[in-house]
Design brief:
By secondary structure, the protein is of the alpha/beta class. It has nine helices and seven strands, in the order H-H-H-H-E-E-E-H-E-E-H-H-H-E-E-H. 21% of the residues are buried.
Length: 248
């Protein structure tokens, strides 16, 4: 075990957090209004009594971006976790399906599936992870039958009351970061450097967000606003009709 210096963690974050900001901006620039409208539930928006076209557009954008940001930032945190573990335990990014990190500690091979938070999946997704763990253990033991292998579902934030899940362990938040680093305070140390260039990058993002919102509002109004009111029939037909014919 080689204790990691907080300066190394801060340096990694400052050098790589830009990929998160670039990813969310790129995701915004690639958006097409009609693609989002086809993926979202129009009945939900009607039930919320949305009256303004811009309000509806902003809700669509925010719902999409929230999901995208969670994925992009989750990938960043996974990279950070692997970096930290490499420094401390000489761990490595796994090439095995469904496994993100592998490392050896006290004559045990740990295989880790990294997720953002504790409530990341439904029952079928959890069963898929368990199956990936089982297959990974079989593969590892093929080359070394005496090696003790422990599977871990690691979550970058949150809490989990029961860590022992029977065929794997689940560590969340502080416990996860301590597990991969040996440092019980690491979960606190990583928060400050995450703000590196955040204001500058967020200003750039907000400018693009405003432009996309205005553009989409015009596009939406041209297609789905009649006499100043949202034409919900037209919107639902666009989203759900078996054969959709545009009024144009």
């Amino acid at each position: 075990m080689y204790p990691i210096k907080i300066e190394e963690v801060s340096q990694y974050i400052e050098q790589n957090i830009g990929y998160f900001h670039k990813g969310r901006l790129d995701s915004l620039k690639k958006l097409k209004l009609y693609n989002i409208l086809q993926r979202k539930n129009p009945y939900l928006f009607k039930a919320r009594n949305i009256l303004l076209a811009q309000d509806l557009v902003k809700l669509l954008l925010d719902a999409h971006l929230s999901s995208q940001e969670e994925t992009i930032f989750g990938n960043f945190l996974e990279g950070l976790a692997i970096f930290v573990n490499q420094k401390v335990y000489n761990g490595w990014k796994s090439s095995t399906q469904g496994i993100d990190l592998e490392f050896n500690k006290d004559n045990i091979r740990y295989i880790v599936a990294i997720k953002s938070g504790p409530n990341w999946g439904n029952s079928s997704q959890i069963r898929k992870m368990q199956d990936d763990f089982r297959k990974a253990k079989q593969t590892i033991r093929t080359s070394n039958s005496n090696l003790h292998v422990i599977a871990v579902n690691g979550c970058c934030y949150g809490r989990n009351a029961k860590t022992d899940k029977g065929d794997y362990y689940k560590y969340c938040g502080q416990k996860f970061w301590e597990f991969i680093s040996g440092n019980p305070d690491l979960y606190l140390k990583i928060i400050k450097p995450l703000g590196y260039s955040a204001r500058e990058k967020n200003d750039e993002f907000q400018e693009e967000y405003a432009q996309i919102t205005n553009k989409f509002t015009i596009e939406f109004s041209e297609k789905f606003v009649v006499n100043g009111e949202i034409n919900w029939d037209a919107l639902v037909k666009f989203n759900s009709a078996e054969i959709y014919k545009s009024k144009d």
